[in-house]
Amino acid sequence: MELNRNKKIILMILAMILGVNLYGYINNNTKEIALAYNVNPETGIKELIVSCDYAELEYNELEDKAEIIALIKVKDNLSEKNSYFTYDNIEGKYLVGYYGERDVEVLKYYKSENQEAKKLNIIEPAAIKDNIYYHNEDYSKMVMGNEYIVYLSTENASGKYSIMAGSTGITKVNKVNEIEDYEDVTSLYDEEHNLN
């Protein structure tokens, strides 16, 4: 009887050790996953910064390859409704791409074959899904109400107007409710290209 009691005690101790180790493994892995995100304390939205490579373009190349160069004003917020995700075709569970499709008002065209459109839908390398804000490492989403000079091309997988070369293809001109400390970028561009 004493032998059976000792076996039970040893089995209980082994089960406890296994349970503690399994709990520690799960707990540590959960912490590692949570640390992969930055969490905005105001909104509670998790931020996932994605490492990526862009075609590096000098300014002259960017200007030459852009189908549209325009001063725009963003008319909507990035949300799950205007965010799109692409998954692999094999299992459908691996994320291979994402973008946000944004509504913008064109304030001024600097380059375009059709300068009549006052509204455009453009895509940017940022999206939101399941309370997670995805964006490329050198890019921050456009903010509703802000004005930007954008370099756009349809040479991408979606065939839609897209900001070119990551953050190189977009310049913030103003911030809503903030005074700028630098000269208006559009006036400098106008002077360089004799558009006044």
Topology:
Layout: H1 2-35, E1 38-39, E2 46-50, H2 59-65, E3 68-74, E4 83-87, E5 95-111, E6 119-124, E7 126-129, E8 132-136, E9 147-153, E10 162-163, E11 170-172, H3 185-192
Parallel strand pairs: 2-8
Antiparallel strand pairs: 1-2, 3-5, 3-9, 4-5, 5-6, 7-8, 9-10, 9-11
How is this structure best described in words?
The structure is a single chain. The protein has three helices and eleven strands; from the N terminus they run αββαβββββββββα. The protein has about 200 residues and is α+β, with helices and mostly antiparallel strands. Strands 3, 4, 5, 6, 9, 10 and 11 form a seven-stranded antiparallel β-sheet that branches. A hairpin with a 6-residue loop joins β1 and β2.
Structure characteristics:
OB fold (Dihydrolipoamide Acetyltransferase, E2P); four-stranded mixed sheet; 196 residues; single chain; 11 strands; transmembrane; seven-stranded antiparallel sheet; globular; alpha+beta
In short:
The protein has 196 residues and is an alpha+beta fold.
Largest sheet: 7 strands, antiparallel
The chain-level structural class is: alpha+beta
> What is the CATH topology assignment of one domain?
OB fold (Dihydrolipoamide Acetyltransferase, E2P)
How large, in whole angstroms, is the Cα Rg?
25 Å
Strand segment count: 11
Give the N-terminus to C-terminus distance in angstroms.
101 Å
Order of helices and strands: HEEHEEEEEEEEEH
- Helicity range: 25-40%
What would the average pLDDT be, to the nearest integer? 75
Low-confidence stretches: 17-35, 177-189
Q: What percent strand?
A: 25-35%
Q: What form results from the Cα inertia axes?
A: globular
Query: What's the CATH C level of one domain?
Result: Mainly Beta
Output the number of helix runs. Answer: 3
